[in-house]
Write a structure and sequence with these properties.
By secondary structure, the chain is mostly beta strands. About 0% of the residues lie in helices and about 50% in strands. It is built from 1 helix and 39 strands. The protein has one helix at about 5-10; strands at about 20, 30, 60, 65-70, 75, 100, 115, 120-125, 130-135, 145-150, 160, 165-170, 175-185, 190-195, 205, 205-215, 220-225, 230-240, 240-250, 255-265, 265-275, 275-285, 300-305, 310-315, 320-325, 335, 350, 350-355, 360, 370-375, 380-385, 390, 400, 405-420, 420-425, 435, 455-465, 470-475, 485-495. The strands form 11 sheets. Strands 11, 12, 13, 14 and 15 form a 5-stranded antiparallel β-sheet that branches. A 4-stranded antiparallel β-sheet has the order 3-4-5-6, with no helix packed on it. Strands 7-8-9-10 form a 4-stranded antiparallel β-sheet, with no helix packed on it. Strand 12 and strand 13 (about 175-185) form a beta hairpin.
């Protein structure tokens, strides 16, 4: 059983992956892995793994083995020995030996990804999904792969699991769609529903990254052709019923390129490439956490920095403070007071740009007790879908009633802890009307002079227009918070026909 000379060298020359090792002093070392050599047999009795001289499509861990996907084969290392793909002995086949198994199908099924899911291993090809059951030990004698479903899948983005669901991309012409893969526990049936059926043109075809947060019930997507945009899918389950399924876009500056994204707890970390270098930025999604003890909420600004992180110089002759940011910022910036003795918290400070990283503020912001926060302004915008009357359908459920005319009268928005937002509504062929909520409500206990005011309540505004031709939007372009719970509308409906059963 002496090994054939030079077999370890051949394995090393196969463009094998490298490893990132954390050293004892806290540093990291990136180096080529030390792959074990064959200690017995020859190319017939102890052959090289089938991925030799092939493109490695995916690497993964499963049941204490390192897995490799190449072409139609799935190869596992020895159990607990992640860099050994050779048998221990050629006289007998032991359970800890490597596993090398291929999928079988009438179509050419080049495997792209392997994802542990629902106590099994799910394998993705372009048109078919396969499963390696996880209800028994993974050994060379028991490993068997079976076809489970046939959905078209894109190979640009790795499928991402979140809770009891798995999400993967598929192509729809020049656009991309997302499917939610799940297992019906009562019947052991597997299916995947299209989450983008109502927004088929939202994302381009070149989505390359999916990241999920089960803390926030949120999926984020990145695409090559829209480098400054992040696509977000938010869901919420009430028991077994999905009561929220919402898509949105996060648009960053025109000079930004989001190259990577990931979650830690309720924070999302973004790698953003700009003209002056690569930045790692954090976005806290927990709205219950606040920047300041007094208002107890976050100022809504990107690239947020405090005055203590900036260089400040006061000029008595001009009564201006020169502020040098720790980074250059070509986009619009806003400065907000968060502790000045003369200005209330949340006061928007007038600023004048000198250069990309230098601004001038009126007054002395170097004095004791004076502090501010600075950040890039952005706009929150939500447009209501058409207002429709729904009635009980013949076969059950609700159906929209399109016969007749619905004339809108009033819209009521229930909000919580909101400091500012405005509603813009535009009847077709007419000017846009604006109603503003400032956070200050007469008679409210929160409406205190000299302090930033937020309020929870019901904001009602008149809307006189046809339900199909009137556009209604909620907008917030200030650094103050807003949170919306629900909306109700009133209108006059004139039926032109009736439905008979």
């Amino acid at each position: 059983e002496s090994p054939e000379p030079g077999r370890k060298v051949a394995l090393r020359a196969a463009n094998m992956p490298h490893i990132l090792v954390r050293e004892a002093d806290g540093t990291f070392t990136f180096k080529q892995a030390e792959w074990d050599q064959a200690r017995c047999g020859d190319d017939v009795t102890n052959p090289f793994p089938s991925f030799m001289e092939k493109t490695l499509n995916d690497l993964f861990f499963y049941k204490n083995r390192l897995g490799v996907i190449a072409d139609e084969n799935v190869v596992f290392s020895r159990n607990g020995d992640y860099f050994n793909f050779f048998r221990e002995t050629v006289t007998t086949l032991v359970d800890t030996d490597p596993v090398d198994v291929a999928v079988s199908h009438t179509k050419v099924s080049i495997l792209k990804y392997a994802v542990p899911f629902s106590e099994s291993l799910l394998l993705f090809s372009d048109q078919t999904q396969f499963i390696l059951p996880g209800n028994e030990r993974l050994t060379p004698q028991t490993a068997s792969i079976a076809q489970t479903t046939e959905f078209n899948a894109s190979d640009m983005a790795r499928p991402q699991g979140a809770g009891r669901f798995l999400y993967f991309m598929f192509n729809r012409g020049p656009n991309a769609g997302v499917r939610e893969y799940y297992v019906e526990q009562d019947y052991e049936q597997r299916d995947a529903v299209d989450l983008t059926a109502n927004v088929p043109k939202l994302m381009p075809q070149d989505v390359f990254s999916i990241q999920a947060s089960t803390n926030e019930d949120l999926l984020l997507f990145l695409a090559h052709s829209t480098p400054n945009k992040v696509f977000a899918y938010k869901w919420f389950y009430d028991g077994e019923e999905k009561v929220q399924s919402a898509w949105s876009e996060w648009l960053f500056g025109k000079h930004d390129k989001v190259v990577g994204i990931g979650f830690i707890d309720s924070s999302v970390y973004l790698g953003i490439m700009r003209d002056d270098g690569l930045y790692l930025e954090r976005m806290d999604l927990d709205m219950n956490a606040g920047d300041l003890e007094d208002p107890g909420f976050k100022f809504l600004m990107d690239r947020n920095v405090s005055s203590s992180e900036c260089s400040l110089t006061y000029d008595e002759e001009t009564d201006e403070t020169t502020v040098v940011l720790p980074y250059p910022e070509p986009e619009e910036m806003q400065f907000v007071s968060d502790g000045d003795n003369t200005q209330p918290i949340g006061y928007l400070i007038n600023s004048r740009r000198v250069s990309e990283d230098t601004f001038r503020l009126r007054g002395d912001w170097t004095a004791s007790g004076a502090s501010f926060q600075a950040g890039r302004m952005y706009e929150l915008r939500y447009q209501f879908s058409p207002f429709l009357i729904r009635e009980e359908a013949v076969g059950g459920g609700l159906a929209a009633t399109t016969e007749g005319r619905l004339q809108l009268s009033f819209l009521a928005i229930n909000h919580a802890d909101s400091g500012y937002f405005r509603v813009e509504y535009t009847p077709v062929g007419r000017d846009t009307y604006t109603r503003v909520f400032t956070g200050r409500v007469i008679g409210s206990i929160r409406n205190i002079i000299g302090k930033l005011s937020t309020d929870t309540g019901r904001f009602t505004l008149p809307i006189f227009g046809n339900h199909l031709t009137t556009t209604v939007e909620i907008i917030n372009d200030k650094p103050l918070p807003c949170r919306f719970l629900s909306a109700e509308w009133e209108g006059r409906w004139t039926a032109r026909s009736s439905r008979r059963v």
